[in-house]
Design goal:
Elements lengths: L3 E4 L5 H5 L8 E17 L7 E6 L8 E9 L10 E13 L11 H6 L14 H11 L5 H15 L1 E2 L15 H7 L1 E2 L1 H14 L4 E8 L14 E8 L3 E5 L1 H7 L10 H5 L11 H6 L3 E2 L3 E6 L18 E5 L2 E3 L5 E10 L2
Parallel strand pairs: 1-3, 6-7
Antiparallel strand pairs: 2-5, 2-15, 3-13, 4-5, 5-11, 8-9, 8-12, 9-10, 13-14
Helix pairs in contact: 3-6, 4-6, 5-6
Length: 341
């Protein structure tokens, strides 16, 4: 192409994260260290004059130590280029989630948390979701016990699409309304629905976007795709993690077969053999170490982008102000190798 190429990407990362990534109630558990390569290939349309690229970048937070090893790009860039190599040590997050340790939010706390209680484009907070949230929680205003009721309801009523890929599918945008209507979806659909219900119940909630370092793909030339999970806030505890999407696989209400085995195994961090009630409980308040965080939040405002971006799970590319679709105008590959100690 002729014209200008601008690689912007991660200047938004700190702002998108929101304040207070660490929780007073959370503690680090097991850790894992990885060397990763994050590569992007962009093929702009013929005649494009202005190409703008935003790429996801790993964040530094209390449970994630990042060291950028090497950055390679043929174009000028600010923070993130089209290839980055980094080392990361990720810690398991463990949280004591006892309803007795928290209480309903005070009015001032609700005001302070307004950014995590309103609607996003694909996460509406409206009368439909308020009514459903009230039905599920019974009016419980304790953030922990109410959140667990929403968690259990989601597990009972929504199926991860990879269980039955011949008849279920995910939405392309991570939609709470799609997930509620179809009772299925991927991680973003699950967590959009949960977020809409939680916020409708007055529980501050934010979505976290990242990727797994999938054990079965260690050292292989295969993309890790992306994953998302949830953080909700409770007074006296802080931000509490959960992953109701992965937990749904461990409910164990389906059989592995030739049609779903590969997809199910690759939807978890360390593989899958069978249902496990202990893992269902684990993923409410805890998450494993085989993850990397890209950003927190939806409807991201990227410097120079034509409009707010639904999520930056991989990248966002625009040619002359128009978005390019993944696989049509660009590709991303995240590969890794786990370091042993």
């Amino acid at each position: 192409m002729t014209g200008r190429t601008t690689l912007l990407a991660a200047a938004l990362m700190a702002a998108a994260a929101g304040a207070g990534c660490a929780s007073a109630g959370a503690r680090p558990g097991a850790s894992a260290t990885f060397e990763a390569r994050h590569a992007f290939t962009v093929t702009p349309p013929a005649g494009a004059k202005d190409l703008r690229c935003w790429f996801a970048m790993p964040q530094q937070d209390p449970f994630q130590e990042v060291s950028v090893v090497r950055v390679t790009s043929p174009h000028p860039h600010r923070v993130v280029p089209d290839v980055e190599e980094f080392g990361i040590t990720r810690r398991e997050v463990l949280t004591d989630v006892d309803p007795a340790d928290t209480r309903p939010l005070f009015p001032g706390e609700t005001r302070d948390m307004a950014a995590y209680l309103g609607s996003d484009a694909q996460v509406p907070v409206n009368e439909e979701f308020r009514k459903l949230a009230l039905d599920i929680t019974g009016g419980d205003r304790n953030p922990v016990s109410a959140s667990r009721k929403l968690y259990d309801w989601t597990l009972k009523n929504v199926e991860y699409w990879v269980k039955y890929p011949d008849r279920l599918k995910a939405s392309p945008v991570g939609s709470a309304e799609y997930c509620l209507a179809s009772k299925t979806g991927n991680c973003t659909d699950f967590h959009s629905l949960w977020t809409a219900l939680a916020r409708s119940a007055g529980i501050p909630t934010r979505m976290v976007y990242g990727s797994f370092f999938k054990k079965s793909l260690d050292g292989k030339d295969a993309d890790q795709s992306y994953h998302c999970w949830i953080e909700f806030w409770a007074p006296g505890i802080g931000w509490i993690v959960h992953d109701v999407a992965v937990a749904d696989l461990f409910v164990g209400d389906f059989a592995l077969n030739d049609g779903n085995r590969e997809k199910v195994v690759l939807t978890t961090a360390a593989g899958y053999e069978k249902g496990d009630p202990a893992m269902v409980d684990y993923y409410f308040g805890n998450i494993d170490a085989r993850r990397v965080v890209w950003h927190r939040g939806r409807d991201l405002v990227l410097e120079g982008a034509s409009a707010p971006v639904n999520m930056l799970a991989k990248a966002w590319i625009e040619a002359d102000g128009k978005p390019l679709k993944e696989k049509e105008g660009w590709t991303r590959k995240l590969t890794f190798r786990e370091e042993t100690r």
